[in-house]
Amino acid sequence: MAVQVLIPTPLQKSTNNEASVELEAGSINELIEALNGRYPGIQERLCDESGTLRRFLNIYVNGEDIRFKDNQTTSLKDGDEVSIVLAVAGG
């Protein structure tokens, strides 16, 4: 099942400057694996050593925050749009 992944500008260095990629994945975990398969090393930017998404990272599926769904086991279906959003801090 093909999903569209929107890549934030700071991570585009890891995706050959692609802002959007299409991948086959049935869950967020599978999506991260697929991204890392195509762009080796990007998983380290997205997840910590235990495989958990980094705290400064938010992921949305069709505009819904996965934290209010099933987090990394959130299922994906054909045509879904996944947005990777980096948290902004400041004061």
Please tell me about this protein's structure:
The protein is of the alpha+beta class and 91 residues long. The protein has one domain (2-86): Ubiquitin-like (UB roll) (Roll), CATH 3.10.20.30. The chain contains two helices and five strands; from the N terminus they run ββααβββ. Strands 2-1-5-3-4 form a five-stranded mixed β-sheet, covered by helices on one side. A hairpin with a 2-residue loop joins strand 3 and strand 4. The longest helix is centred in the middle third of the chain and has 11 residues, at 28-38. The chain is globular and about 40 Å long. The chain starts with a strand and ends in a 5-residue tail after the last strand. The mean pLDDT is 95.
